[in-house]
C-alpha cells in the first residue's frame, strides 16, 4: 500500500508557515450561507473534504458507503478535491467566503489557527461514545485536539516516530541491532560505522529544507533534555537552553558525513536512498513500512534513542475538524466522526490506510492484533504511543517552527554552530511569541 504524499509528512503541517500570519482576519470575518442540508426526504447531506488520494481515499470511500447503509438518513459527500498539504489554504478561503464543508482533514499543527474561527465546532463533551470513551483515546491523540481545555476536533490519523534499520547493512558492519534504551551517542556512532563514502552508503538521513518535516524530528531530543515549547514566563521559548545540545547531534552526524541531507520537501529522496539499500537507519513512522516492505528491505524497528535512557518520541495526530453549517448538518457530522472512531472502523482505517489505532480499545481488536503479527515492527510504533508527546496547539507554532527549521538546516549544512544557530532561533521565535493573536 502506498499512502498519499502528505501522510509522509504527517507531522509537518508546512502550509501553516505561509498562511498563519493572515489567518486571523480571514477567519473572524466568516458567516455561513449554507443551507441546512436536509433534503425533501429528510436525508441530511454533509460535505467532507477528506484530503486523501489513492489508497486512503478508496478506504474512506468504502467506509462512507458502509456508514450510509447503517445510517440511511445521512449522506456523505466526499468532495473537496484538494490534498491535505493544500487544505489550510482552501479552508481559509472557504471560511472567508462563508461556504465551507462540514468536515475537513486538518493537520494537527494547523488546528490552533483554524480553531480561531467561530465556525469551528466545539466538540467538548461530544466526542467519544460508549464504545470509545474519550479517555480511551491515546494521550497524544487527546492532546492534539485539545486547545485551552476545549476539544476542537476529532483525531483522524495517528502516528509515532521510531528508527527503521536495514538488517543486512548492520550485519555487514558487524553491529548489533539497537533495542530500547539506546542513546543518541549510540546513534551517532552507529551511523558513522554504517557509512561508506566510497560506496555511496549513509548511516542515516535528515530532511534539509528547514520545513516542518525537518523540525518534528528534533522535538523528542528537546523534550528528553527537559525543554518545552513555551517557557514558564509564557513569553519565550522553553528550549533555548536545551537546543544547542540537541543540535549537537545534528552537527556530529554532519561532521561525520554519515547523514544524507534531503534537499527537497517531502523526504522522498531520503526514503528512496533507504529503500535502495544505501542507508542503514531512517527515523520514520508506520506510514513508511508498506514502501519498505515493497522494496524487500529486511528491516528492524527500534524505539527512538534518547539522552536519558527513557522512552521518548513524537506523535503526529491529524484531525477531522468540523464546521457549523446548522444543527442538522453538525449533528450528522458528529455522528459520522464518532462512527469512524469506533474500533471496527478505526482498525479498518489503520490496517488498510497505514495508520495506528486511535484508542486502546481499537488496539485490542483481533483484526489489529492479527495485522501486527504480519507487519514487522508495527508493535514498536504502537507501544511508543504510551509515552508519545505532541507539538503544542499554539497559534505561534508555525513561526517558532520556521525559526527552529532554519537553525537545524544551518547546522546540517555546516553554516553555523549549534550555539549560534540556537541564539538566532531564540531571537526569532521569541519575537513571534510576543505578537498578539
From TrEMBL:
Q: What is this protein called?
A: ABC transporter substrate-binding protein
Q: List the PROSITE patterns hit by this protein, alphabetically.
A: PROKAR_LIPOPROTEIN, TAT
Highest taxon of the lineage: Bacteria
User: What phylogenetic lineage does the species belong to?
Assistant: Bacteria, Bacillati, Actinomycetota, Actinomycetes, Kitasatosporales
Quote the SUPFAM superfamilies the UniProt record gives: Periplasmic binding protein-like II (SSF53850)
Pfam families named in the record: SBP_bac_1
Where does the record locate the signal sequence feature? none
